C-alpha cells in the first residue's frame, strides 16, 4: 500500500495528552541565541504545568516516530508536491524537532540524527545549481523549485543548529557552517538579492532566515543587512517590511489567511532581534506594531476562532494554526497582554520556545475560556487612511454573537478580491451571509495539484461572489488588480461607542468610474424591538450615468419563505456572460408583490431563521441563484445567492435592507420559535445627506435617522411627516 | 410585537443547571396510582443526585413562568397550528408540570392553578360538540380537530389529576370526574370506538389515556377495555397492540422517527399497568417486548444519537427527545438493563417519574460516556420473518465508527418508503450515503403549515431518493403502499460474528414483477488492507425480462475526483419524467474510461474523503444529479447523487461496488492524509450462487468469495484461475 502524506505546517505544537513525565539529564545548550534558551529548556524539563508537560511529551513521541526512519536527503528534482520537495520540507521539520528534543531529553541517537542530517546537507549543498524545475519569472531555489521554501528551510535549520552546535566537534561545525549555512544565507541574500530586499512576506522569510543565521554565526554584517536591507539604509529589510506590510492597526492587506502565514517570520525574527540586538527595541517599533499585528489577527475571527475568509482564503483555518500559537506566545512574553491568555488557554498548546513556557505559566484558573470580540474599526494603510475593515459585533459575552464585517480595505495584491464595501455576516459561529473565500482545494492533488483553481479568477475574486453592489454586471475596478491597488476606499464615519446603535459609513468613488458608492451598516441591539440584534444595510449608488444595479446576498441554508412572486425557469438560465455572472445559474426570478413596497426573503440555516427585508419597487427584479454554471470540473462549492436588481438604467439608487436573525427550530423538542421576521413597512427617504428609515414592528413604528455628512457637526435636525426630528451624534433610532 | 411559539413536545425533562436546592414542606399525594408515587416524590425532594436536583429545579423555574400568566381556556375553533389548538396543548402540558411541582414544592398558587384549569375544562367540556374543523375521513375530537390530540390531552390530564385529587374538595372531584374525565374517556373509548380498537399508535394513545383514567377513578371496566379491547377479548386493546405493532425484535415498521413518538404511551401505560395490575406481568409479556422496543429504538441511531432517518422522518431528531428519556427511565426501572445507563447519563436529564429517580441514582462514576453500537440484525414482522434491518458497524469503541444500514423491512404503512434493499452509510457521525428522510419542514408554517410537502410523495418516498436499484425508472411495488404492505423481503443470511468480515444478504422477489433483487453488504475491517473499514456492496438483479437498471448513491460533499469521463449538459436536463426522477437535474453524464473496467468517484465531506469504486463496462452510464428540478417552492433539500446505469435492456446484472472512507484534510495543519482510494482492479464473477470479487491494493491482490446459498452448508469450494479455493462459513477474504 502506497499512501502519500503531505505535510505543510511544521512548527511544533502539541495537543496530545501523555501519560508520564520524562526523566532527563541536563545537557542543554547554554549558548543558544534564538528562541529557546538554556533557561527555557530547563523550564520545559522541570515544569509541572500541564500544557508544558504535554508539549514535551508530545515532542518526545513525535521524535520517537522520526527516529524510526533513516535519514534520506534526496537529490532535488521535483516541483511542489513531488517527492524530493516534500521530503526536504519534512527533513527540516524533523531536524528542528529532534534538535529541541535532544536538549530536553538527550540521547545518543538524537544527536546522531542531527549530525547526520546536517552533514548530509552540507555535503550536498555545494554541489547544487539552480533547481531544475525553477521557473523563469519566479524566484527559484536550489533545494526547491522556488526560493521561498529555501528561506523557510534555513529558518528552521538555523534554529536547530543554534540548539545543537555546542555538541558538535569543531570540524563538524566548520563543515556545516562553511558548506551549508553560509552558502544558504549567501544564496538567499546575495544571489536572491531582489527577494531579500522586497517589501513582501517572501522577503520577510529571507531576512528572518539570514538574520538569525548571522546571530548564530556571529556575523554582524548578515544581521545588519537583514534588519536594514542589503544597503543597510533602512529602505528595505525587516524594519522596512514591518513599516509597510502592516497597516497602522496591524492589518495585513492580503487578509487574515495570509496574515496568519506571514506572522511567523515577523514574530520569530523580532524575538531573535530582541535577544541579540536589544538596542533596536523592535517590539516598541512603530508604537508596538507587532502587538497590533497579533491582536488584529486574532480579532479577525468568527466565534469559533476561524479566520474571516476574506480575499483568497481557505475556509476553516483557525487560530489553532501553529503560526498563531507561536505568535501569541511571543507576543505575550513581550507585551504581557493578558487579553492573549484566553486564546492561549483555548488553544491548549504552546510553541517550544521560551515564550511558550512563559505563556503557559501565565494561564491561571481565572483565565477565561472566552475571547472577547468587541466591535472595532481596523484601518488599512501605513498611515491608517486607506479604508479598512469594520467589525461590528453584538455586545454579548456569551455564545451566540452576531457579527458583521464591512470590508473596504485595499486590494490586497494578487490575492485580493474586488469586493470593496462588501459585507459578510456571522451568527452563532455560522456563516450567514458568507464570503466565498478562494476557489481552491488546498493540497488535494486531484484538484489541479491543490493550487488555485481557474474559477478563483473567474468567480471567487469577482465582485458578484460577494455581498456587494455590481453595476452593469462588471466587477469593480474593471477587475484590474493594478488599477485597484492605486485607489483606496474611505471611512466616512464610525461609531461603536453605543451598544444599542453602532454604525460604520464607508465610501468608494473609483470602483466604478463617475460613481460614488456608499454603504452604511448599522447594528441595532434593542430588546424592545426584537429578540436578537439586527442590521440595517443602506447602500447608495450615485452616478453620473445610468446603470443596471445589483445588490447580492450570498447565503447558506434552506429557503423557508419569500414575500415576493417568483417563477423557476424551465430551461437552464445563466445569470450573465462573464465577471463571475457566468458561474451563476438562475434558480428563480421574482418580482415584488403587486402594490407592495417591501419584499422579504427568509432562510433557515443550522436550525436558525434569518430574514432579509428589502425596500423594492415596481421595477425591482429578485433572483435566487446558485454556483455551478460553466464549472466543468465541479470546482465551485455549492453556494446560493439572493440578488436584488434594479434593471433599468438609473443614476441614483439606495438599496435598503434589514438583515435579521430571528428564530430557532429545535429538532429534539420539535419546537419552532420566532419563525417570522418582525419587520414590516420598511421605507426610506433621503434628505440631502440624511437617511431616514422607518419600519414597523407589530403596531409600533420606528424611525432611524442617519447623517452621512463627513463634517464634525453633531446636532442634526430634519423634518419628517411635518414633524421636526433632532438628534445628537451620527444617528438615532426612536419610536414614533 | 407578536411572536408565535409553537410547542409540540411536552414531557418534563431538564438540562438546565440551577443554583440551589429548593426547600420544601411535605404535602405530597400519598394515593397516586400512576407514574410518580409518594415515595418517588420524596426522592425528588430529598435527593442529592445532581441530575435529580436539576430536574426539580428546572421544573420549578418552568412553573414559575407558567404561573405568571392567567389560565385561559379558549373555545375550540382552530385547526392544527391555530391558536385554540396550540393553547389547549399548552394547557395540558402546564397542568401536568404544575401538578407535579405542587407535590414537590407546594404553594397555594400552584394548587389554585390546577383547580382553575380542571374546573375550567370541566365547565367547558360538556358544552362541546365535535370540533368545527374535524374532517370527514379523519377521526375528530372535541377540543381539537383530530381525536389523537384529545387522547394525548387526557393522557396528561389524568396524570395531573392523579397527583392532585386528594388536595381537592369532594365537590371539586365530583365535578372534574363527572364533567371532564369520564366524558373524555367515554368520548375516546365509546364515541371513538374504531380508533380505540385500532392496532395503531393512535389507538395506543387512546387506550393509555382511558386505561390510566380507569386506574385513577377506580373503574375496572375502563381498565379492562383498555388492556383487552372494548370486547375484552384481547383481539384489540393494549396487549394486541403490543403484539402486532412491534416486530419480534422490537422494531416498529414506520421507522425510528415514529417509533420514538409511539414509545411513550406504550411504556407509560405499561408502567401504570404494572403498578395497578401487577398480575398482568406486562413487562414480561412477549418475552419482554417492551425492553426490546426501547433498546432497538436506541440502537437505531448514528454516533451522535440521531435516529436513522428511514421512511418519513425529520432529520436531527435525537434520543434526547423527551419520549425517549421517559422510555429509557421506565425500561431501566423494570429491567435493570445496565446498557441503558450510559444513554441516560449522556442525556443528562430524567423524566419526573419514580423511574427517573431510580435511573438517575443508578448512574455511577463508572457509567461510561459511550453507548456501544454493535452490529445487529433487527427482524421485522410479528414472527420475525418479514425482512428487517441489518445494522453493520465497525468494531471500534472510540469515536469514528463506520455504520451501514441495509433496509429491507416491511413497507411501514403510509409513512413508508419504497426502498427495499436500500443502503445508508454513516461515518464519524456524519451521513455519507444518506437517506433523504421526509420532505417536510416540521412546524414551519410557511412551508405548507409544517405538514408533509407534496414532494414527500413525489420524491422522498420513491425508490430513486435512496441508495437502491431502480428498474425502468419505476419505483418498487409500483409505488403502491397497499401492494407493498402485502409482500415482504427476506433475509438470506447474516453473519456478524467476525469483526474482520461481516455480511448480510437480503433478497426481494416482488418489488419488480418477475425479478429477483438481491443485495449483500459486507463490512471489512482489516488494517493490512486499508486504514479504515470499508464496504463491499454487491447488488444482483435477475429478471425474466429486460430492463434498464440504475443503482443510485446519494451523497453529501464536494466532488474531488472522478476516474471516468463526463460532460456537463449545456441545457437543463432532468433525469426522468416521474417516480422522483422528475426532481433530479443532471449535473453531469459520464462513461467509463476507454478500456477500463472500473470507474471511481471520490468526494470530500466534513473534511474526510470517501470513494466509490465500481465495476463498469462499455455500456455503463454514470450520472451526477441534484435535487431541485420541478420543485416550484424550493421544498426539496439540496442533495446530490451518483448514479450508475446499465441503460440497455438486460435481464441479469450485478452491480459491484466498494464504498471506502479513506482520508482526512486537516484545515488547521493544512495536511492531507490518504486522499486517494487504495483499490484498483476490482472485478467480479459469479459461479452459480457464489460471488467472487477480486481487487488490488497496491501490488497485492485480494479475493473475496461469498456464498449466496440459503442452505446450511458451511464448506464451499470453487475454482478460480484454475486454482481451487475453499472456505468455511458464508464468506472468505484472502490475499492471493
UniProtKB/TrEMBL annotation, chains A, B:
Keyword Cytoplasm: no
InterPro entries in alphabetical order: Alginate_lyase_dom, Chondroitin_lyas, Hepar_II_III_C
Top-level lineage group: Bacteria
Compartments where located: Periplasm
UniProt keywords, alphabetically: Lyase, Periplasm, Signal
PROSITE patterns referenced in this protein's UniProt entry, alphabetically: PROKAR_LIPOPROTEIN
Domain Heparinase II/III-like C-terminal: 382-576
Residue ranges annotated for the Alginate lyase domain, each copy included: 128-306
Entry coiled-coil feature ranges: none
GO MF term list: lyase activity
Protein name: Alginate lyase
Amino acid at each position: 500500500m502506497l499512501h502519500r502524506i503531505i505535510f505543510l505546517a511544521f512548527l511544533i505544537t502539541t495537543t496530545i495528552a501523555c501519560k508520564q513525565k520524562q526523566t532527563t539529564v541536563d545537557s542543554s545548550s547554554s549558548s543558544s541565541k534564538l528562541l529557546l534558551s538554556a533557561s527555557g529548556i530547563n523550564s520545559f524539563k522541570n515544569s509541572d504545568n500541564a500544557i508544558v508537560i504535554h508539549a514535551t511529551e508530545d515532542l518526545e513521541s513525535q521524535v520517537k516516530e522520526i527516529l524510526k526512519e533513516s535519514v534520506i536527503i534526496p537529490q532535488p528534482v521535483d516541483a511542489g508536491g513531488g517527492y524530493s520537495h516534500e521530503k526536504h520540507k519534512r527533513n527540516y521539520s524533523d531536524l528542528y524537532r529532534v534538535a529541541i528534543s535532544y536538549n530536553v531529553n538527550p540521547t545518543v541517537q538524537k544527536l546522531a540524527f542531527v549530525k547526520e542530517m546536517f552533514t548530509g546537507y552540507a555535503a550536498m549543498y555545494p554541489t547544487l545549481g539552480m533547481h531544475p524545475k525553477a521557473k523563469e519569472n519566479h524566484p527559484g531555489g536550489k533545494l526547491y523549485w522556488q526560493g521561498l521554501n529555501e528561506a523557510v528551510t534555513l529558518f528552521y535549520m538555523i534554529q536547530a543548529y543554534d540548539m545543537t552546535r555546542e555538541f558538535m566537534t569543531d570540524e563538524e561545525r566548520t563543515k556545516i557552517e562553511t558548506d551549508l549555512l553560509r552558502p544558504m544565507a549567501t544564496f538567499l541574500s546575495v544571489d536572491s538579492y531582489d527577494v531579500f530586499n522586497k517589501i513582501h512576506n517572501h522577503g520577510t522569510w529571507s531576512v528572518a532566515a539570514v538574520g538569525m543565521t548571522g546571530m548564530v554565526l556571529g556575523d554582524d554584517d548578515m544581521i545588519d543587512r537583514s534588519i536594514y536591507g542589503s544597503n543597510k539604509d533602512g529602505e528595505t529589510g525587516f524594519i522596512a517590511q514591518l513599516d509597510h506590510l502592516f497597516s497602522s492597526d496591524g492589518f495585513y492587506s492580503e487578509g487574515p489567511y495570509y496574515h496568519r502565514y506571514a506572522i511567523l517570520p515577523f514574530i520569530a525574527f523580532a524575538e531573535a532581534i530582541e535577544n541579540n540586538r536589544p538596542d533596536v527595541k523592535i517590539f516598541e517599533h512603530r508604537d508596538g506594531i507587532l502587538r497590533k499585528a497579533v491582536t488584529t489577527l486574532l480579532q479577525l475571527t468568527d466565534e469559533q476562532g476561524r479566520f474571516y475568509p476574506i480575499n483568497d482564503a481557505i475556509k476553516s483555518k483557525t487560530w489553532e494554526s501553529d503560526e498563531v500559537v507561536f505568535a501569541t506566545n511571543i507576543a505575550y512574553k513581550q507585551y504581557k497582554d493578558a487579553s492573549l491568555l484566553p486564546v492561549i488557554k483555548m488553544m491548549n498548546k504552546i510553541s517550544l520556545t521560551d515564550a511558550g513556557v512563559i505563556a503557559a505559566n501565565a494561564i491561571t484558573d481565572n483565565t477565561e475560556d472566552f475571547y472577547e470580540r468587541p466591535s472595532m474599526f481596523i484601518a488599512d494603510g501605513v498611515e491608517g487612511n486607506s479604508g479598512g475593515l469594520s467589525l461590528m459585533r453584538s455586545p454579548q459575552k456569551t455564545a451566540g454573537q452576531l457579527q458583521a464585517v464591512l470590508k473596504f480595505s485595499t486590494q490586497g495584491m494578487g490575492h485580493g478580491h474586488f469586493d470593496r464595501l462588501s459585507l459578510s455576516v456571522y451568527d452563532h459561529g455560522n456563516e450567514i451571509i458568507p464570503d466565498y473565500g478562494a476557489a481552491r482545494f488546498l493540497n488535494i492533488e486531484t484538484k489541479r495539484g491543490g493550487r488555485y483553481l481557474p474559477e478563483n479568477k473567474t468567480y471567487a475574486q469577482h465582485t458578484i461572489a460577494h455581498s456587494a453592489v455590481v453595476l452593469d454586471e462588471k466587477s469593480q475596478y474593471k477587475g484590474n488588480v493594478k488599477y485597484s491597488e492605486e485607489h483606496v476606499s474611505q471611512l466616512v464615519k464610525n461609531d461603536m461607542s453605543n451598544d444599542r446603535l453602532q454604525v460604520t459609513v464607508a465610501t468608494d468613488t473609483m470602483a466604478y468610474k463617475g460613481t460614488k458608492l456608499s454603504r452604511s451598516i448599522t447594528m441595532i441591539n434593542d430588546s424592545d424591538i426584537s429578540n436578537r440584534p439586527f442590521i440595517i444595510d443602506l447602500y447608495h449608488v450615485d452616478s453620473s450615468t445610468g446603470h443596471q444595479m445589483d445588490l447580492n446576498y450570498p447565503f447558506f441554508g434552506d429557503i423557508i419563505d419569500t414575500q415576493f412572486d417568483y417563477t423557476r425557469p424551465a430551461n437552464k438560465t445563466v445569470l450573465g456572460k462573464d465577471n463571475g455572472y457566468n458561474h451563476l445559474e438562475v434558480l428563480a426570478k421574482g418580482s415584488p408583490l403587486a402594490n407592495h413596497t417591501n419584499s422579504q426573503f427568509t432562510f433557515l440555516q443550522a436550525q436558525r431563521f434569518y430574514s432579509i427585508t428589502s425596500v423594492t419597487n415596481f421595477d425591482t427584479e429578485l433572483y435566487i441563484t446558485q454556483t455551478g454554471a460553466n464549472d466543468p470540473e465541479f470546482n465551485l462549492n455549492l453556494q446560493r445567492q439572493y440578488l436584488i436588481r434594479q434593471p433599468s438604467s438609473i443614476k441614483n439608487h439606495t438599496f435598503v435592507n434589514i438583515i435579521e436573525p430571528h428564530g430557532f427550530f429545535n429538532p429534539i423538542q420539535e419546537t419552532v420559535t420566532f419563525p417570522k421576521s418582525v419587520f414590516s413597512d420598511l421605507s426610506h427617504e433621503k434628505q440631502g445627506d440624511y437617511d431616514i428609515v422607518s419600519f414597523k414592528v407589530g403596531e409600533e413604528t420606528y424611525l432611524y435617522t442617519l447623517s452621512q455628512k463627513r463634517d464634525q457637526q453633531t446636532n442634526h435636525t430634519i423634518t419628517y411627516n411635518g414633524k421636526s426630528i433632532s438628534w445628537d451624534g451620527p444617528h438615532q433610532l426612536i419610536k414614533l
